[in-house]
Amino acid sequence: MSGKKACRLEFYGGCKMAILPILLYIFLSAFFAVFYQYYSMRALVFSAFIGLLVGFLFVKNKAKYWDAVISGLSQFGNAKLIFTFLLIGVFTKMLTFGKIGNGFVWLSTQMHISGSLFVVFAFLASSIISLGAGAPIAAMFAVVPIFYPPGILLGSEPAVLLGALLSGVFFGDALSPSSQVINTTIDTQKDGETQETADLQTVLKERTPWLLLIAVIAMVLFYLFGGAETGQMANHLALLADFSDSSGLWMLVPVIVLLVVSFKTKNLFLGLPIGILTGLVVGLVTGIFSWQDIVFVNAEATQISGIIFDGIYSMVDIVISTILLFGMISVAVEGGVLALFCDWVLSKRIFCSTKGAELVLVLGTGIVNIFLSGCVLPAILLFGHIADTIGQRSGIPPGKRVYLMTGIATSVTAIIPVNSAFVMGAITLINEMPDILPQSVVPSPFAIFSSSYYCILLTVVCFIWIFAERGKKKLPLAQNA
């Protein structure tokens, strides 16, 4: 601890100034969204970099400032997350090349699904893809280009369709044993006596009934409000044929393999490579794609493309954004502002009770998640140490901490209209589709937010989890410890 205190950053104005980079990051992100209607991951990258530069002006020991920024990436868990993004990028790009979405579209046309029913279908299909993606943000970049164009052609309401896709991304990830969100949260939360983490299967088993109930209610709402005008659907049949291909269903094989391996080994780094290799073999054997789709070198233009390169490159914006977020988090930690907050919370009697502590976990995780643009994993990493300290002192079982934190982090706090990486990312993808849908409607961020019914319902359930007697039988043992 003494070594850690020795390298703690000192700011003009006190340790509270260590939060300045994050606050400026939030302000600039909101500024771009509100005043310029610019919704893009690049706005988040720019805002994060400016935040770090301004923070540099207020730090006393300026040389150590950048050491702290770099140390945010040097931590094993953070570096592991960056590499996971790269693997996930390749896996999701493989699913896209393999036309898994086209397979689902073919299935929907065979079942004569359109309008609001397609919105429900898109919710379920995006959930399945998210089950194998490993991270919600990676799944979002995969499902929006796949399902949004055919959904519009089939007469779905744009905002509700996007709300269903984002909801499906979070729902599928919540059920996935390969979820980086769940596994990372489990790693940060330990039992006060044994220092063991929660059991993955137990966490999934305890909260799955609630999540299924929420999903059913959300699907009813998607069906009621997901239909748009269908008078022009006949004119779209030719375009719709371009999104329909039954062979894409073969890509369910690597998704299943990924889920099975990740569930049995509890190791996403084993599941992803095996899933990628399985998908490449399946794609080549079935003829869905060729060797040139995997890697293509254009010697004349000195360019390389294909599933592997394009998959890695598709994660550039999110990787850079995450690296900068790690830097800001590290500055906040080394500046002492997080420790100051933790001490303040633990000094309040109301927060020392079980329900009070659980409320702190939910509100704290949610606020940090909003500050970090809904980038769930950085928020978990930032607040995880505080949550573990509060949870151990208050006797909250690590399992309950996990589903409280992951629940609120994937609720409305992830889709705040002015700065959400998910909302901005989805709109960015739609704006890149002019050749596909020249007349497509780009819904407003606020319309997407209000149409993400699963996320809204999950927020309510998170507070039900706090005040219900769920899990209280374990508390006396934890408290006695």
Mean of residue pLDDT values: 81
Strand order of the largest sheet: 1-2
Strand and helix order: HHHHHHHHHHHHHHHEEHHHHHHHHHHH
Query: Which structural class do you get from the secondary structure elements?
Result: mainly alpha
Helix content estimate? over 70%
Which residues form runs of ≥5 with pLDDT under 50? 1-7, 470-481
Q: How would a textbook summarize the main sheet? A: 2 strands, antiparallel
Q: Give the helix tally.
A: 26
Proportion of strand residues: under 5%
What is the 3D form?
Answer: globular
Distance between the termini: 24 Å
Number of strands: 2
Roughly how many Å is the radius of gyration? 22 Å
Structural commentary:
With 481 residues, the chain is mainly alpha-helical. It has 26 helices and two strands. The protein has helices at residues 2-6, 20-36, 41-58, 62-74, 76-97, 100-110, 115-133, 136-153, 158-175, 180-188, 200-225, 237-241, 252-265, 268-286, 291-294, 307-313, 316-334, 337-346, 349-352, 354-371, 376-394, 398-409, 421-431, 445-451, 453-467, 475-480, and strands at 296-298, 303-305. Strands 1-2 form a two-stranded antiparallel ribbon. Helix 7 crosses helix 13. It is globular, with a radius of gyration of 22 Å.
